[in-house]
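User: My collaborator sent over this chain with a note saying "see what the structure looks like." That's all I know about it. Can you take a look?
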Amino acid sequence: MLMWDETLFRDPDVFEIDYIPEQFNHRESQMRELAFMVRPGMKGGRPLNTILKGLPGTGKTTTVRKIFSDIEDTTSKMIPVYVNCQIDNTKFAVLSQVYKKITGHNPSAAGNSFKRVFESVAQLISEDEKVIIVALDDANYLVYENELNKLLYILLRSHETYPKTRIGVITIISDMDVDLTTVIDARVSSVFCPTDIYFPPYQEEEVRSILSERVLQGLYPGVLSDALLDIVIGHTLASGDLRVGIDLLKRATLNAEREAERCITGKNISEAYQISKYLHLQFCLKSLKKEEADILRLIATLSETDEQLTMGSLFEALHAKNPIGYTRFYEIIKKLDAIRLVNLAFKEGRGRTRLINLRYEPDKVLSYLK
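Assistant: Without extra context I'll predict from the sequence alone. Here is the result:
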C-alpha cells in the first residue's frame, strides 16, 4: 500500500497542459521554419508574418512558447507577446495583453480607448527601439468575432503612422475549416503576406514516443506497465488530441494515489478516461460568452427530448425566452459548429431544413456548463 506521504509522481509538472519540454521532438522542421521567420526581429528588423495551422493538440502552442522562451533568453531587443484568443478575442483585449507585456501592468480601464492604448504601445516601442512579435493563439476565435481584420490592420500598418514601430504576427489556427485567404481583406493582405507552417496530426509512433518520455520523466519506475500505456496511446489516437493522453496519465496516477496503489491499474485509466475524453469540450466552453453559452444550454436541453432539432424550432424556442435577431443567432450557431460543439446537417426532403446535432451527450454539456 502507498503510504500517505508517498507519491507516484517523480515530477507532476510534466503532465501539465502548459509544460514545455526541454527536448521538443517531432516538430523540429516547424521549429526551424518559425525560428527563421522571427529571426529578422532579433536584429531589429520586422519579423516575417506566419500562419501555424493544425488540429488541436499537434504542438503549435508549444512550438511558439519554445521559440518565445529562446527569444527572451537571447535578446531584449524583441518582445514576444503570447495571446490566448479563446479568452482575449477582441482587438482591445489583444492590445491590452501587448501593453501589459511591455509595461508590466494592464492599461487603465477608465476612459481608455483602443486608439489611446495603441498610441501608448507605439510610443513605447518607438522610443526604446523594440520589436514586437505577437502570437495570436486560436486566432480563429477572432475570425468568429469579426475582429481579425481590424486587429491585423492596426498592428501591421502601425509603421505608416508611427515610422519606428516594427510588429510581426504569428496566427495560430486550430479550425481546419478556417481559410485565412478568404477571410483577410485586401487592405490587410497587402501587408500580412504570411508563410504557412502546417502541423500534421501526430502518428502512432510519435504519440508513443512523446507519452513514453512523459512517463519516464514524470512517474517513478514500475508505476505504469507497457500494456496500460498502450491503452492510453489508443485513447489518445482515437481523440486525435495529444492533450487527452497527457491529461489521462495525470488523472489515472491521481486515481491510483487516492486508492493507495503503488502502480496504475486498468480501472484507474478507465475512470480517468471518462473525464479526459471531454477535455475538448471543457476548453471550448471556457471560451463562450454568456449569450453563446445560453444558446448551447438550450440546444442541450432540447436535444434530450428532440433528436431532430432544427434551426427553426431552436430559434422559436430561443425567441420565446430571449428576443434575438436571426442574423446574430445564425452567427452563434456557426461558431458552435466551427469549434465542434454542434454539427449542422441538411435534412433530406423538400426545402433546406437544417438539423442541429450535439457532438456530446446533452447531460455532459449541461453538467460542464454549470
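A starting point for your reply to your collaborator: The mean pLDDT is 91.
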